[in-house]
Amino acid sequence: MTYALSLLDKSPILADEPAGAALQRTIALAQNAERLGYKRFWVAEHHANPGLASSAPEILIAYLAARTQRIRIGSGGVLLPHYSPYKVAETFNLLATLAPDRIDLGIGKAFGGLPDATRALRRLQDPARPPRFEELLAELDGYLASRSEAGSPPALPVPPAAPERFLLGASPESARLAAARGWHFVFAGQLNGDPGVTEASLDAYAKAGGTGEVLLAVTAFVAPTAEEARAVTDPLKVFRVTLDDGQSVNLGTEEQAAEYARQAGAASYRTEIRRPHVLSGTAEDVRGELDRLRARFGVREFIVDTPPSATTRRLASVTLLAGGASALAA
């Protein structure tokens, strides 16, 4: 069985290097992904994180589209609750006009940063009455489809081919929303690798009448030997902080977890150390895991992320994964 492979990048910054070096790595990775036959190259959105340079995916998308020729470039994803749907529609219509039939709009609803950054991004919103994500997505969909309410301004320019639309989520609720709007659905398996939740979400998309493609995001690292791969991935940890109001979020370090609780004004919190779900090993090992996921869930495309700890070896990893893979033959 064959499937497509795509990449997700967060532009991780190594210790003692400028952010520009991380962005240059992202550019080189996108160009090599195109050469290797990957279908898409997506960039993420994170705020006030000194370890990541990807704070404005729409800017990076424009630059990457100009530095590549064929590969689809997109967001994984734009965090819609921070923004005006009209402005997002304008931005991606412009991108799709500059790079016809190559732009993907992936939308998410996570915070993408600690509470102080979220408050700064939403400064003009009433914190007591935050907009509902479902309403924001419906408004954005209307602008992109040129069917907004009477009296609303058009989101110009109108591109020759509309950006492809993907809703990113890790729950059946997100899957049903994607189906209701007629969007493609991406299950964030790199955030929630629980097979039961994955299956329930993909089933929910199908039962809700979803007609788009279903993609599965995974974290993977490939090395010449399984031992080399495990040396990188075995030490990985995720710190899940749960506040006294029940809100939970995954963070990269115990210090980030404590800072999140402080900025949120939590009177108390607890932290749980978890092991992230990572596909790790030789190219044969990882492709075998992807084959099994393809057979179990019926997905025809994977979005592959790489652990930040493997930043300096990422190009080698994606090259090994692509080598001889029937997934990239097309």
From TrEMBL:
Q: Report the Pfam families cross-referenced here.
A: Bac_luciferase
Write out the GO cellular component annotations. cytosol
Q: Which SUPFAM superfamilies match?
A: Bacterial luciferase-like
Q: GO molecular-function annotation terms?
A: oxidoreductase activity, acting on paired donors, with incorporation or reduction of molecular oxygen
User: Domain of life of the organism in this record?
Assistant: Bacteria
Record domain Luciferase-like: where:
17-299
Kindly give the InterPro entries that the UniProt entry links to this protein. Answer: Bact_Lucif_Oxidored, CmoO-like, Luciferase-like_dom, Luciferase-like_sf
Question: Member of which family?
Answer: To bacterial alkanal monooxygenase alpha and beta chains.
Please identify the protein, giving its name as recorded: Luciferase family oxidoreductase, group 1
